[in-house]
Specification:
218 residues; alpha+beta; 6-stranded mixed sheet; 4-stranded antiparallel sheet
Amino acid sequence: MELSLFDVLGPVMIGPSSSHTAGAARLADVARQIAGEFVHVSFGLHGSFARTYRGHGTDRALVAGALGLSPQDERLRRAFDLARERGVAFDFYPTHVEGAHENTVVMTFRSADGRERTIEGASLGGGRIRICRIDDYPAEITADAPTLVILQQDRQGMVSHVTQILAERGINIAVMRLSRTARGEIACCVIEVDGELPAGLVERVAGVPGVLSARAVR
């Protein structure tokens, strides 16, 4: 069996557990990037997260990630106070997600105008994460590579418009996944790319007719 140094030592982080602190902070940070601006976030905790979140500091790690703090940031311990200083409200509640990983959280971000986005994800250990669902759309986002998350009208030509923009910028698509709730309604397109996402790209994609939102995960 091959083991990397990362597998043995784990990530650099604040807190006692890579899955319950480092992974939780990374998970909430990625969810924040997908959700956009918000004033309130609810964390639904499943499995091991629900049973041990206070003792392992998972609650503080999740709030810290939602504020954009890294797992290495020493301010993680003060996440609750920082959130209140920034006018961000938060709460936690136990939940059950059928068939989900033990370290799963359902995060609901609410904007100032009342719009909500719900993102489900799991902390897999060693700081690794997976976003499993965005609202009603299945997803498979690890954030190991720069990623575009696009909500768009499900109609002919939408994907080609987006991929053409990437081609014009010389961006190579590594992985692309598309999910939808029903034909002709809304689709969620997730694109992982090689290299960095250049400045202005997200705004260009967001301006395509039929694109409802575009977010970058870096």
